[in-house]
Amino acid sequence: MALQAIRYERGSLSILDQLLLPHQSIYIDVPDVSTAWNAIKTMQVRGAPAIAIVAVLALAVELHNNDNASQSAPSILTEIHSKLDYLVTSRPTAVNLGDAANKLKTLTEKAATATESATSESVVAAFIEAAEHMLLQDVEDNKAIGRHGALWIQNAVSKTSDIRVLTHCNTGSLATASYGTALGIIRSLHANNSLSHAYCTETRPYNQGSRLTAYELVHEQIPATLITDSMAASLFSSQNIAAVIVGADRVAANGDTANKIGTFQLAIVARHFGVKFVVAAPTTSVDLNTENGAGIKIEHRPGWEVLVVSGPTVTNNPGNDSSNVEVNVHDVRSVKQAANGIGVFNPSFDVTPAALIDAIVTENGVVEKNADGVFPMHQAFK
Ligand SMILES: CSC[C@H](O)[C@H](O)C(=O)COP(=O)(O)O
């Protein structure tokens, strides 16, 4: 069964606490907007699409469970818009939440003003239905990304089997409503028997690749190997890697792509080795209002995330079989691993210039550069 990061039914939302993975699978309730804001900020939920969906569903749950009957339609509209604005402040780089908030503002504005008989309840009902639709739509979009991306890679490398790929960042069921974006393409390649091996990087913050992506690859029984972020050039020089597949937190109008820190350097290394570089992103991650990467705000995280690691203690010495370490989940400790006094530079994302990207895969198909070497990103919205 696929991992499920988000559990929702009308009036109730819970999320898999991603700070506890991969050693503990514990769902926490998200009954309201302020719990959602904190869960996003502290990375209990992460991944651009998942963040957006959890935020809007949390507001849907809060609205469903509150007694709004005495409020007027304009008053509930103001409340919804200000709560959406607040949610958008949780993390700045991914555009999906801002995109969802804008769509829901437009929709509720229409619901509140379309007829004179609009009530707070009709506005709330319109909001809840639209938020629930976003959850379902994200899964469909990811499956389409998986199909388009797998086919593009097969054609680009003229192979339908024995394809090896490297992925960076966290883009599977944990980062989306389900199925995943970049990991959705890997899932599709695997389902087609085209994939021989997937490599994943450790990826910061909190080593999301070794904790989350690796966990999902193991869970899905996709043949996979973990490397540190600094091993990509070594990997490319020793293995026949067909493509690097990454997700996106925001794709600008020219194709410049903000994604998990380290994506840019992987693109440089991939270009050196002639390895295809593929971005997988739903159109909710494409921001035509941002001209290029210079306009994307990059989140910086606290330095202690680099200085300190936390995790459960180890209870056995597995010798050479380091993949089977037993852990004591009841004894979680933090370990300082850097010298006292050292400064830390900790951007959470970087921007890969469009020039280093070969294909941008959305649910509507694959956008490639035109004869002028430019990504016509508007074509993603057909
Ligand atoms: C699934 S889309 C891309 C992801 O949002 C992104 O690359 C990523 O790794 C998630 O970042 P995070 O900092 O964990 O929210």
Automatic annotation (TrEMBL):
<keyword id="KW-0539">Nucleus</keyword>
<feature type="site" description="Transition state stabilizer">
    <location>
        <position position="169"/>
    </location>
</feature>
<protein>
    <recommendedName>
        <fullName>Methylthioribose-1-phosphate isomerase</fullName>
        <ecNumber>5.3.1.23</ecNumber>
    </recommendedName>
</protein>
<keyword id="KW-0413">Isomerase</keyword>
<dbReference type="InterPro" id="IPR011559">
    <property type="entry name" value="Initiation_fac_2B_a/b/d"/>
</dbReference>
<keyword id="KW-0486">Methionine biosynthesis</keyword>
<keyword id="KW-0963">Cytoplasm</keyword>
<dbReference type="InterPro" id="IPR037171">
    <property type="entry name" value="NagB/RpiA_transferase-like"/>
</dbReference>
<keyword id="KW-0028">Amino-acid biosynthesis</keyword>
<dbReference type="GO" id="GO:0019509">
    <property type="term" value="P:L-methionine salvage from methylthioadenosine"/>
</dbReference>
<dbReference type="InterPro" id="IPR000649">
    <property type="entry name" value="IF-2B-related"/>
</dbReference>
<comment type="similarity">
    <text>Belongs to the eIF-2B alpha/beta/delta subunits family. MtnA subfamily.</text>
</comment>
<dbReference type="GO" id="GO:0005634">
    <property type="term" value="C:nucleus"/>
</dbReference>
<comment type="pathway">
    <text>Amino-acid biosynthesis; L-methionine biosynthesis via salvage pathway; L-methionine from S-methyl-5-thio-alpha-D-ribose 1-phosphate: step 1/6.</text>
</comment>
<dbReference type="GO" id="GO:0005737">
    <property type="term" value="C:cytoplasm"/>
</dbReference>
<dbReference type="GO" id="GO:0046523">
    <property type="term" value="F:S-methyl-5-thioribose-1-phosphate isomerase activity"/>
</dbReference>
<feature type="active site" description="Proton donor">
    <location>
        <position position="249"/>
    </location>
</feature>
<comment type="function">
    <text>Catalyzes the interconversion of methylthioribose-1-phosphate (MTR-1-P) into methylthioribulose-1-phosphate (MTRu-1-P).</text>
</comment>
<dbReference type="Pfam" id="PF01008">
    <property type="entry name" value="IF-2B"/>
</dbReference>
<dbReference type="InterPro" id="IPR005251">
    <property type="entry name" value="IF-M1Pi"/>
</dbReference>
<dbReference type="InterPro" id="IPR027363">
    <property type="entry name" value="M1Pi_N"/>
</dbReference>
<dbReference type="InterPro" id="IPR042529">
    <property type="entry name" value="IF_2B-like_C"/>
</dbReference>
